[in-house]
Amino acid sequence: xxxxxxxxLITELQSQGLKLANSDHAASTVRPREASTARSRGVSGxxxxxxxxxxxxxxxxxxxxxxxxxxxxxxxSPYSVGDIDELPQLSLQKYKKAIASIEFPQQxxxxxxxxADGIPYNQIALLHSNNVLATTVLQTCIRxxxxxxxxxxxxxxxxxxxxxTIAKKTPQHLAEVAAAAVELDGVEHLVMTTGTPNTTDRxxxxxxxxxxxxxxxxxxxxxxxxxxxxxxxxxxxxxKAGIDSLxxxxxxxxxxxxxxxxxxxxxxxxxxYFEAFAAAVKVFGWGQVSTYILAGLGDSLETIVDTCDxxxxxxxxxxxxxxxxxxxxxxxxxxxxxxxxMYEIYSQVGAMLNSAGMFSQNIKAGCAKCxxxxxxxxxxH
Length: 381
Ligand code: SF4
Known about the structure:
By secondary structure, the protein is α/β, with parallel strands linked by helices. It has 2 domains: about 5-105, no CATH class; about 110-380, Alpha-Beta Barrel (TIM Barrel), CATH 3.20.20.70. The chain is about 35% helix and about 15% strand. The chain is built from 13 helices and 12 strands. The chain has helices at about 5-15, 25-30, 30-45, 70-75, 160, 170-185, 205-215, 235-240, 255-260, 270-285, 300-315, 340-355, 365-370, and strands spanning about 55-60, 65-70, 80, 90-95, 95-105, 125-130, 130-135, 190-195, 220-225, 245, 290-295, 315-320. The protein has a 7-stranded mixed beta sheet. A 5-stranded antiparallel beta sheet has the order 2-1-5-4-3, covered by helices on one side. Helix 1 packs across helix 12 (about 340-355), helix 2 (about 25-30) runs antiparallel to helix 3 and helix 11 (about 300-315) runs parallel beside helix 12 (about 340-355). The protein is globular and about 55 Å long. Iron/sulfur cluster binds near residues 52 and 128.
C-alpha cells in the first residue's frame, strides 16, 4: 500500500466507520485468546467515556488507528471485516471485496488484574491504540448534567452510569495500574484527562496528585488534559509534578459553533485559550502543548486551517480529528465530516506541520503523539 493509499483509507475509515456485521459470531468463532480480544476490544470495545468512544483500535499496514464501529454510521459503512479464520490477520472489505488486511491489537494483560480492594484495572485505565494507557481521573463534569451547559458531543458519564468505570481514580490506583501496564504490556505513555470539576484550577490540582503518584512508581511520560485554569502558575506546578506535555482542547472554533456545540465551555473565550496556550508553551516547550479540534461540527475548512496555522506559530500542535457521533449523546444522529473534507484539512495542516518541523513523534506523551483518532500524523514527513 502506498502512503497516499494508506492516508486515503484511514481517512475514509474514520469518516465512514467499519461494519462488524455479526459481533457475537466474531467473538464465538475465534480461538480462546482472540475470543477475549474480540469481546473486549471488538465487541464491547469502548462505548461512552471522554475519549474515542464507540471506536475500536485497528492496525492497518502497521499503523494503529481508532475506527468507529459501534454507531449508526458504522452500521451503514461500505467497509466490513471478512472471514476471521486467519487471525490475527483479518480481511478488510469494501463493498464486500477484500482490499487490505487488518489486525485487532491483543487484549492487554493488565485487564486481567484487580486492585487489592477489588476494582478491575480496566475500570481505572484503558489501553488506547496499542501502546497508550488512558484514564479519565474524574469521570464527572460540572457541565454534563445540564443540557444548557453540556458539550453536545460528550459521553463522559455514560460509561460511569453503565458501571464500566469509577467516578474518581485515586493516585494510588493509577500508579498501580500504570506500573502493571508498563511491565506487562509495554505501554509507552499515559494520557490523563479529566471532567471539569467545580474548582478554579479546572482539575489541575488533582492531575498533579495523580501524576506525582504515577511518577513515583514508574518512569512513564504523561500528558495531562484539562481546561485552562484560572491561574497559569498551575502549568509550572504540573510540570514539576512530572507532567511532560499538556492538552487544552478547543474542540470547535467559530463563536456560533462554540455556542451551539458547547454552550458551557464557550464561556471560556478563545482569547483566554490562546493566552493559556502561550503560557503553557513557555513551561512545557515548543510542540509539547496540543489541542483537539473536532472537524465536522460546523467550522469551515478555512476556519480550521487558519486556526491551526495560528496554533503552530505559537508552538501548539493542532490535533484535528473527525467528529464521530456517539450513541446516547445529543449529536448521535449528526453526520460525520466527509472524507474529502478531512483529507483537505489534513493535507493543508500536514504541510504546515512539515514546514514548521513540528512532528507528533517528538511529543513526549499524549493524544497528538498517539495520533490514532486522526489520520493527521500520516501526512507528516
Ligand atoms: S489519540 Fe488520544 S483519545 Fe485517541 S486513541 Fe490515542 S490516546 Fe486515545
